[in-house]
Design a protein that fits this description.
nine-stranded mixed β-sheet, 30% helix, 10 helices, Immunoglobulin-like, alpha+beta, 456 residues, single chain, 4 domains
Length: 456
């Protein structure tokens, strides 16, 4: 039977189901082909698609397997063969055959699959800068066959650590011990791991990856500070101060009623004795609210070590505030803050709920040549967080004193301001200037002495 394009064929059949019932079944099929020519074109398109897929897979395999040395040998084989045929050079035949033998000899090293499981176990994932982290690679052969030797590449930050895996018998386990240097503050990413299989010369190479990725938070070096008592703000569960207010918790005295006073605070016994309305006065309850602002402008610091000293100073102040039970705000300029549209995107606040969260946050701090100037950061921070009671501003030794004063003047009246200038190797000193303090820190240990001496 021959079908034309778009032709519909219906077939029907009649049957009988007991007691004289008749059942009719019909089946409709539509043929959309165009005869032999259409079938040939469709088969050609399918074959072309399969060929394209095969070529794409082959190209991917070559790109992932052949090393630069392998590509050089392939080019050498092609060029030498062409020269030998075209110019009848015997030497070219020798070169082509030698390169071809090397290529063929490297292929058997790729045979077999990878039957190993790799697990990375870190001894610690949070350390102080200057420490080392011990790690273990547990490599197990999950098959009963022998696993060939190989090399596991472990990316560590911007570097690479190689772990050599010996020949493993079936179900054998090998443990490789690694030492990861955490010499600088930051976040070190370890993984994903890959194992490479290839020939000893490095012509062909095949890699298998494991998705495990670990992070090591390298905290700044800090120093423990004496508990401080400055910097109070209004709070219902705080410490009574000497300032008298009309409404709080700590009772202070009784005074005459004035228009506008709340009747809730009328002292009725005193009113009955004197015959005039008397109201209660209270001492303002306060608690500590500490703000720390770190300058990220790279131009304000002499070198990398001075910036790290500034980070350590800010982290030490924040840690002591958290230990003392204060609310701590640690703020810096946000990345790309020069192009930010408003204060909320110009300032970055770090988590300070716990000491661990604070130190993890300081591990991610980086200086920036395009960061906002410290005067702007102080002004935006104090405007956004109006309940601060004392503000430490940490900046570098290259920031001139006029700029330090302008930054201090950005702190609202009634809020204590302490400007901390870190200058590597400078003599420690503290001075009062126009209602605010300026500290000079040469080494981190100077901070403890100056805080204890100044009582801030």
């Amino acid at each position: 039977m021959t079908f034309e394009s778009g032709e519909t064929v219906t077939r029907s059949s009649t049957g009988y189901r007991g007691r004289g019932a008749t059942v009719t079944r019909s089946r409709t099929r539509t043929r959309t082909g165009t005869g032999l020519l259409g079938d040939g074109l469709e088969a050609g398109r399918r074959a072309t698609g399969r060929v394209r897929g095969a070529l794409a897979r082959a190209a991917t395999w070559l790109r992932e397997t052949v090393t630069p040395l392998g590509w050089f040998l392939l080019a050498l084989v092609a060029c030498s063969t062409a020269a030998a045929i075209g110019l009848s050079w015997v030497e070219a035949w020798v070169i082509a055959i030698g390169a071809g033998i090397l290529l063929v000899a490297s292929i058997p090293f790729l045979f077999g699959g990878t039957t190993m499981d790799v697990e990375l176990i870190l001894e610690r994932d949070r350390v102080v800068a200057g420490s080392d982290v011990a790690a273990r690679l547990a490599i197990s052969n999950r098959s009963l066959r022998v696993a060939l030797p190989g090399v596991i590449d472990v990316p560590v930050g911007d570097g690479l650590v190689e772990a050599h895996v010996p020949l493993l018998l079936g179900s054998a386990v090998h443990v490789e011990h690694l030492v990861i240097g955490a010499h600088k503050r930051g976040v070190i990413t370890v993984g994903p791991m890959t194992i490479a299989r290839g020939d000893p010369i490095g012509i062909l190479r095949r890699e298998v990856s494991w998705p495990q990725v670990e992070q090591i938070h390298v905290h700044p070096v800090t120093v423990r500070l004496p508990s401080t008592s400055a910097g109070y703000v209004k709070d219902i569960d705080g410490t009574p101060s000497k300032q008298i207010v009309d409404s709080d918790l700590a009772f202070h005295a009784i005074r005459d009623y004035q228009p506008g006073d709340s009747r809730r605070h009328v002292h009725w016994k005193a009113t009955a004795k004197t015959g005039t309305l008397m109201v209660r006065q209270f001492e303002e309850s306060r608690r500590s609210r500490l703000g720390i602002i770190l300058d990220l402008d790279r131009s304000g610091y002499t070198d990398e070590d001075e910036f790290e000293l500034g980070v350590s100073v800010a982290a030490s102040l924040g840690l002591q505030g958290v230990r003392d039970g204060r609310d701590v705000l640690l703020a810096t300029a946000a990345p790309n803050s020069l192009t930010a549209r408003d204060a909320s995107t110009s300032i970055r606040t770090l988590p300070t709920l716990t000491p661990g969260a604070l130190l993890d946050g300081t591990s991610t701090i980086k200086h920036d040549l395009s960061a906002l100037r410290i005067e702007q950061v102080v002004s935006l921070t104090t405007q956004s967080f109006s309940d601060l009671s004392i503000v430490f501003v940490v900046t570098g030794g290259l920031v001139p004193l006029p700029r330090v004063r302008r930054a201090a003047f950005g702190v609202p009246p009634g809020v204590a301001a302490v400007m901390v200038r870190v200058e590597s190797g400078a003599e420690p000193k503290s001075q009062q200037v126009a209602g605010f303090s300026i500290m000079s820190i040469g080494v981190l240990g100077d901070l403890r002495n100056l805080v204890a001496r100044g009582g801030v």
